[in-house]
């Protein structure tokens, strides 16, 4: 992988032959890409294949962004961020993963079981939950023609089985269903999922191979009104390009971590603030011994009935269980700290496998506390399902916002981030071609 530290940026810029546009401007590179997650990597690959020079500036000391396969903390693979390639039929990352030789494992909610006090709960089966989900979908046909409301409000007085449906919504969205726009949820595409055996972060790393990426380079300012195209500034100095692709998470933009000079158009600002991010976190527990009978996915009936959203997910070798904690439960536990997270996840584990197995080691993600993420993924506010479209409208053919927050059937996932980066790069290739004449 051709990844350089910021110390070498001057060298790179000096070595880069300035591109002379017809207008006579001198630039350091053709395209600056901010962020080396799936969107940034995809954009850079696309530009490279069109013969266009692009440099990625990445704030972290690694590539992948929210895709992070942690192999250090537990001495085994823990995908702190994405884990699945969603909807294998349309996900653009599936063929790319295969090209890299990644083994892809089938994963299905049909392997979901409900537990109560250490035993299988006989009153609710996966079939019951699936039937309730299908019934909900049928009931939304007309509701979707009306004014937007929250996903949670579409099940206002849930029956015990419908509470499981709400729990699945929360896991899919990484947020309380009451905070999710129903219209934006309905626009999403779902299907069979795959798990890359070596992890999603590892996949991102593999796809970044051979790209020009400067790590440890957080961008603090984007100046976009001069004749020179766009200049970005940060601890690395400054870099000028003809176009910039911005892939940083919407919550990072909303927090003002990057100053735009001049300010962004009001419509873009509004779209950013209408695309807040959920608080979806993972707590991994390595067990003292493998539990062969563990189902792939488990829910605790008593917690679901109390409206406490969660899923426990077993690793393929059944030696590790990861608690998925979306929205309020996650924000509350993280506010209280590590002992509260451990106590809660222990109680979930006890509900599923009883108390016969010890937890040997633990690791926890903290995306909503991470300054370069500030959340899990974008969730349009109720009444603002159109924010995704507005967000990705190019600004003066110079600023291109993209990433998982775009309007796409796989929105909020790595698949959408990939398609978004590619789309921006293709548009830019067309524009630069036309400008060069
Ligand atoms: C817990 C969790 C579970 C998830 N599960 C799944 C899943 O199973 N499947 C799936 O498809 N998706 C999942 N997702 C969503 C998935 O992670 C994202 O959709 C995808 O990784 C987003 O890619 P991106 O390139 O748009 O953004 P990012 O990966 O966030 O990339 C943006 C990059 O910008 C960098 N950056 C930020 N600020 C600056 C700055 N000022 N200057 C320079 N660089 C900056 C960041 O460090 C980051 O590397 C999950 C996310 C989380 C948090």
Short description:
By secondary structure, this protein is α/β, with parallel strands linked by helices. Helices cover 32% and strands 22% of the residues.
Describe this structure in words.
The chain has 437 residues and is α/β, with parallel strands linked by helices. It folds into two domains: 3-66 and 200-276 and 381-436, FAD/NAD(P)-binding domain (3-Layer(bba) Sandwich); 109-191 and 278-369, Alpha-Beta Complex (Polyamine Oxidase, Chain A, domain 2). It contains 14 helices and 22 strands. The protein has helices at residues 9-15, 38-49, 93-99, 126-143, 160-173, 182-186, 200-207, 250-254, 266-273, 301-305, 328-336, 338-353, 387-391, 414-436, and strands at 3-5, 19-20, 26-27, 29-34, 54-57, 69-70, 78-79, 104-107, 112-116, 119-120, 193-196, 213-215, 219-223, 230-234, 237-246, 259-261, 280-287, 297-300, 311-314, 320-326, 359-364, 399-401. The strands form five sheets. Strands 1, 4, 5, 12, 13, 14, 15, 16 and 22 form a nine-stranded mixed beta sheet that branches. A seven-stranded mixed beta sheet has the order 10-9-18-19-20-17-21. A hairpin with a 7-residue loop joins strand 6 (69-70) and strand 7 (78-79). Helix 2 packs parallel to helix 14 and helix 4 packs across helix 5 (160-173). The protein starts with a strand and ends with a helix. Mean pLDDT is 92; it is low at 1-26. Bound molecules: flavin-adenine dinucleotide. Flavin-adenine dinucleotide (FAD) binds at residues 34-40, 57-60, 65-67, 81-84, 86, 218-219, 247-249, 252, 257-258, 280, 282, 365, 367, 372-373, 376-377, 403-404, 412-415, 417.
């Amino acid at each position: 992988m051709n990844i350089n530290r910021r110390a070498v940026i001057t060298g790179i810029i000096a070595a880069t032959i300035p591109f002379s546009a017809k207008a006579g401007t001198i630039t350091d590179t053709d395209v600056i890409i901010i962020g080396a997650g799936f969107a940034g990597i995809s954009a850079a690959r696309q530009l490279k294949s069109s013969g266009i020079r692009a440099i990625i500036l990445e704030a972290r000391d690694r590539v992948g962004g929210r895709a992070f396969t942690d192999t250090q903390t537990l001495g085994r693979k823990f995908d702190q961020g994405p884990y699945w390639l969603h909807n294998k039929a349309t996900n653009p990352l599936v063929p790319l993963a295969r090209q890299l030789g990644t083994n892809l494992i089938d994963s299905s909610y049909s392997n979901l079981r409900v537990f109560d006090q250490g035993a299988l709960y006989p009153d609710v089966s996966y079939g019951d939950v699936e039937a309730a989900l299908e019934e909900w979908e049928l009931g939304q046909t007309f509701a979707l023609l009306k004014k937007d409301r929250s996903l949670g409000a579409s099940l206002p007085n849930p029956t015990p089985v419908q509470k499981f449906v709400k729990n699945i919504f929360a896991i899919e969205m990484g947020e309380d269903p009451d905070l999710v726009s129903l219209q934006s949820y309905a626009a999403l595409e779902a299907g069979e999922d795959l798990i890359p055996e070596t992890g999603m972060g590892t996949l991102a790393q593999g796809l970044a191979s051979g790209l020009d990426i400067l790590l440890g380079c957080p961008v603090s300012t984007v100046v976009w009104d001069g004749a020179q195209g766009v200049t970005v500034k940060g601890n690395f100095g400054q870099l000028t390009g003809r176009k910039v692709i911005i892939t940083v998470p919407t919550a990072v933009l909303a927090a003002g971590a990057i100053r735009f000079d001049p300010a962004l158009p009001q419509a873009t600002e509004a779209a950013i603030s209408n695309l807040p991010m959920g608080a979806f976190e993972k707590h991994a527990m390595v067990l003292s011994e493998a539990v062969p009978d563990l189902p792939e996915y488990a829910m605790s009936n008593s917690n679901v009935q109390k409206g406490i959203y969660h899923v426990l997910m077993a690793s393929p070798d059944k030696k590790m269980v990861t608690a998925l904690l979306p929205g309020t439960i996650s924000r509350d536990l993280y506010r209280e700290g590590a002992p509260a997270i451990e106590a809660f996840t222990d109680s979930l584990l006890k509900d599923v496998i009883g108390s016969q197995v010890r937890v040997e080691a633990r690791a926890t993600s903290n995306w909503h506390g991470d300054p370069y993420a500030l959340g899990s993924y974008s969730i349009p506010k109720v009444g603002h399902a159109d924010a995704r479209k507005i967000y990705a409208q190019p600004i003066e053919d110079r600023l291109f916002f993209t990433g998982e927050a775009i309007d796409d059937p796989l929105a909020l996932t790595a698949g959408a981030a990939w398609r978004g980066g590619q789309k921006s790069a293709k548009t830019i290739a067309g524009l630069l071609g036309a400008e060069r004449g």
